[in-house]
Amino acid sequence: MERKFKFSEDEFYHVYNRGTDKRLIFLDDDDRNYFQKLLYLSNSTKRIILRDLPSGASVYSIKREDTFVDIGAYTLMPNHFHLLLYEKNEGGISTFMGKLGTAYAMYFNKKYKRTGGLFEGSFKAVHADEDGYLEYLFSYIHLNLIKLIQKDWKIVGIKNLDEAHSCLDGYRYSSYGDYAGNVREEGLILNKESFPEYFLGAKDFKKLTDEWLEYG
């Protein structure tokens, strides 16, 4: 489906895509780890060749030049992913998503010996043009994971808040931990400076996410 808007500089967008025919696109932790690395590597105007990386060096030690977008939040689900992006320069989101999708599809098809498109068409995007909606998306993207332990939580409410917290705290393949105060190299995927202040403080972040968990 063709988007009915053009990306505008200095604006925020919820960007997402899922596997074709709703197929799984992350089959194990190696897949999720690779996609995380691509979130970092694809967001660079510098051409990066992984085989040139010194043995034992972390991908996140690579010095990027200018980035195409600022990434504010992300979550990887079994058959789809969510990103919260800031359009820094004209064409930034489209270029970044093109690099990301192509690189991951090539990796996935080679690993699992398959051919054809991996994703359900081009990526989808929604313009977050109001601060209240942006704040909602910030929580929604992180709390999407709760569907894995309770699909109906938004309808009937959280049945076990401790279990929900454990799910969120223990999942490495989202930016939740980076806002909850965990220090890890994957935190370099994020570019927080372009986002509102409520994205920054761990205490405020947990309060905000708990409010959404408790009230749906």
Can you give a write-up of this model?
Strands 2-3-1-4 form a four-stranded antiparallel beta sheet. 37% of the residues lie in helices and 13% in strands. Strand 2 (69-76) and strand 3 form a beta hairpin. It is α+β, with helices and mostly antiparallel strands. It has helices at residues 29-41, 92-111, 131-143, 153-156, 161-170, 176-180, 202-215; strands spanning 12-18, 69-76, 80-87, 124-128.
Helix and strand element order: EHEEHEHHHHH
What is the residue-averaged pLDDT? 90
Strand percentage lies at: 5-15%
Number of helices: 7
User: Which percent range fits the helix content?
Assistant: 25-40%
What order do the helices and strands come in, and which of them pair?
Elements lengths: L11 E7 L10 H13 L27 E8 L3 E8 L4 H20 L12 E5 L2 H13 L9 H4 L4 H10 L5 H5 L21 H14 L1
Antiparallel strand pairs: 1-3, 1-4, 2-3
Helix pairs in contact: 1-2, 3-7
Q: What would a concise description of this structure say?
A:
The chain has 216 residues and is an alpha+beta fold. 37% of the residues lie in helices and 13% in strands.
Essential attributes:
alpha+beta, 7 helices, globular
